[in-house]
Specification:
By secondary structure, the protein is mainly beta. Helices cover 3% and strands 64% of the residues. A hairpin with an 8-residue loop joins strand 17 and strand 18. The longest helix is centred in the N-terminal third of the chain and has 14 residues. The radius of gyration is 23 Å and the shape is globular.
Length: 433
């Protein structure tokens, strides 16, 4: 199976030498809506079908054979979505829904369904903006969001995608609900005040002992000193209430520094962005009848490099240092993550994307030795057959290891090593023109 998929990938790459469209720019109309177009009202249907080979599929409930995993599983993956957008002069509305269905021939109950839906409203005013988002998601399996590759979780609540079975770590069902508010006010030509709030509720089925609720609120004041640099002062307050714990976990982030976004003097094609700050993490403890706080301080930050190698090729690197929560785990991790990515076009109709990442860190309330270690890579090649139809091949690899100091949910292995191959077709159909 792996050799067959590798042959498909090579065929797609070779096919790029044959012109498909009379285009002046490969980015325009390669697949789906041409870049730069934003109609006032649109309704798009997307659909994909893949054949999948999974070398180490996690145990999805009680239907698999003995052991936590089943090697070299072949299954079918169907994905569909509807995307509605309406843009007015000052107000925009979006409603999206994505559904995913897997068929596993070796399971007694061989169907697994997952889905996500979201709505969002954004309003632009003369000197500010405001928005609200709502998302709901069902997944038949659990994920570790710490895996350092682009996950199926969307960057914003209104831009949704269905949970990806290739990143599943166990067969624990869950519902996730997110509500987000965000806004900004232009105080002067150079000064901007912004604020945001997000609530998340994660409900595991059927046992609720790993449920959690989080509240995240932040406010940021930014003052531009040059077109490329701004002085930033920010404060964020986070609360996570984990089922079974007496007291919630609280975190306060204080950012005070420079938000820099500019090309490097010695390389005009390279852009650098960085930000630094600090966080104070506290968890209540009980001593007799008195509740006290144990507080820990840590420097946090992020940095990103993006280099444009040519008109159609980009390479980038991203580093993040912060605090990490993982679904179903009550412990708190101090994470250091680095990710590199490559994206571009191999001729007028073939797109290539590749990402690799590594993340590690200790427990805050425990040993300072590494509590987890994970690495992951993805590669995807997509060839446009027509403007609305493309062939796609994808490879996913990841491994993770948790130390004995970490209490994992029942049914979740402390280590994993997995490869997933996917080949199929994906289509885009505009229902409103």
């Amino acid at each position: 199976m792996a050799k067959f998929i590798a042959g498909i990938v090579i065929s797609l790459v070779v096919a790029c030498s044959t012109p498909a469209f009379a285009q002046t720019q490969p980015f325009q109309g390669l697949f789906g809506a041409p870049a730069g177009t934003a109609p006032q009202e649109s309704l798009d249907l997307t659909a994909s079908v893949f054949g999948v080979n999974d070398t180490n599929l996690p145990r999805l409930g009680r239907d698999l054979t003995q052991g936590d995993t089943t090697p070299d599983v072949l299954y079918t993956d169907l994905l569909s979505g509807l995307w509605f957008n309406k843009r007015g002069e000052r107000t925009s509305f979006a409603a999206n829904g994505v559904s995913r269905l897997q068929y596993y021939p070796q399971l007694a109950n061989g169907m697994r369904w997952s889905g996500t839906g979201a709505v969002a409203v954004n309003r632009t005013m003369r000197r500010g903006h405001f928005g609200i988002d709502q998302q709901a998601r069902y997944s038949p399996y659990a994920h570790f969001r710490v895996i350092p590759i682009p996950s199926e979780d969307a960057a914003t609540l209104a831009d949704v995608s269905a949970p990806d079975s290739a990143l599943a770590v166990s067969g624990r069902e869950s519902y996730r609900y997110n509500t987000g508010l965000h806004g900004g006010y232009q105080m002067s030509r150079r000064t901007m005040l912004s604020a945001a709030y997000q609530y998340e509720y994660l409900d595991f089925v059927p046992v609720g002992q790993f449920d959690w609720r989080t509240h995240d609120a932040d406010v940021t004041l930014s003052h531009s000193v040059t077109p490329k640099a701004a002085l930033v002062a920010g404060y964020a307050y986070h609360v996570r209430d984990f089922e079974g714990e007496r007291l919630p976990l609280r975190r306060q982030d204080i950012n005070f520094g420079v938000n820099y976004n500019d090309t490097l003097p010695f390389s005009p094609q390279t852009t650098l962005t960085f930000m630094m700050g600090s966080t104070a993490l506290s968890r209540g403890t009980t001593r007799g009848l008195t509740e006290t706080d144990s507080t820990f301080f840590r420097m946090i930050g992020r940095a990103e490099l993006d280099h444009q190698m040519s008109r159609t090729w980009h390479i980038g690197a991203f580093y993040h240092r912060g605090v990490q929560y993982i679904e179903g785990i009550s412990d708190v991790f101090l994470a250091d993550s680095v990710t590199a990515n490559l994206r571009g076009y191999m001729g007028p109709r073939v797109e290539l994307r590749a990402t690799t990442g590594y993340s590690t860190g200790p427990l805050r309330y425990g040993s300072q030795q590494r509590a987890y270690d994970t690495a992951a890579s993805t590669a995807r090649v997509r060839m446009a057959i027509t403007r609305g139809l493309a062939a796609q091949a994808e490879y996913v690899y990841y491994r993770y290891v948790f130390s004995d100091a970490v209490t994992l949910p029942t049914g979740t292995s402390a280590r994993g090593n997995r490869q997933v191959f996917r080949v199929g077709l994906t289509t885009w159909i505009p229902l409103l023109n």
